[in-house]
């Protein structure tokens, strides 16, 4: 925290380095069972559930399902649905890339 403001995580060198290391670790994995084992080792059950829920939300947003219906189907708050929709449309393209690969 600097001058009462929270410093965004990406401005911290150690956070950027950790992120890069994590990305590299995932990029080296090819076997889905190894990816699953790594995720289970690295994340809590709550974190895994939250990430899985966000992916479900992104898929339904991409299918143009109304936000209230997405919330009902997934159990995600409408705030989460809105946030995921924002990142799906204006983020770095990660959700779109995953969803595109899932449609093949």
The strand count comes to: 0
Considering DSSP H and I runs of 4 or more, what fraction of the residues is helical?
A: over 70%
Strand composition percent: under 5%
The main pleated sheet reads as:
none
How many structural domains?
2
CATH topology of the largest domain: Trp Operon Repressor, Chain A
Compute the separation of the termini in Å. 44 Å
CATH superfamily of the largest domain: TrpR-like
Residue windows where pLDDT falls under 50 for at least 5 positions: none
Helix and strand string, N-terminal first?
HHHHHH
Structural class by helix and strand composition: mainly alpha
Specify the overall morphology.
globular
Radius of gyration: 16 Å
Mean pLDDT over the residues: 89
Give the CATH architecture of the largest domain.
Orthogonal Bundle
Number of helices: 6
CATH class of the largest domain: Mainly Alpha
Task: Write up what this structure looks like.
By secondary structure, the chain is mostly helical. It folds into two domains: 1-42, no CATH class; 44-104, Orthogonal Bundle (Trp Operon Repressor, Chain A), CATH 1.10.1270.10. It has six helices and no strands. It has helices spanning 13-28, 32-42, 45-62, 67-74, 78-90, 94-102. Helix 3 packs antiparallel against helix 4. The relative contact order is 0.08. The mean pLDDT is 89.
Annotate the secondary structure layout.
Blueprint: H1 13-28, H2 32-42, H3 45-62, H4 67-74, H5 78-90, H6 94-102
Helix pairs in contact: 3-4, 3-5
């Amino acid at each position: 925290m600097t001058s009462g403001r929270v410093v965004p995580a990406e401005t911290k060198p150690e956070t950027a380095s950790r992120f890069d290391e994590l990305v590299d670790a995932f990029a080296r994995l090819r076997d889905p069972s190894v990816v699953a084992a790594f995720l289970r080792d690295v994340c809590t059950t709550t974190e895994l559930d939250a990430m899985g829920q966000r992916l479900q939300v992104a898929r339904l947003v991409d299918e143009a399902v109304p936000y209230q219906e997405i919330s009902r189907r997934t159990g995600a708050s409408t705030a989460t649905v809105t946030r995921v929709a924002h990142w799906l449309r204006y983020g770095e393209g990660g959700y779109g890339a995953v969803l595109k690969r899932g449609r093949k």
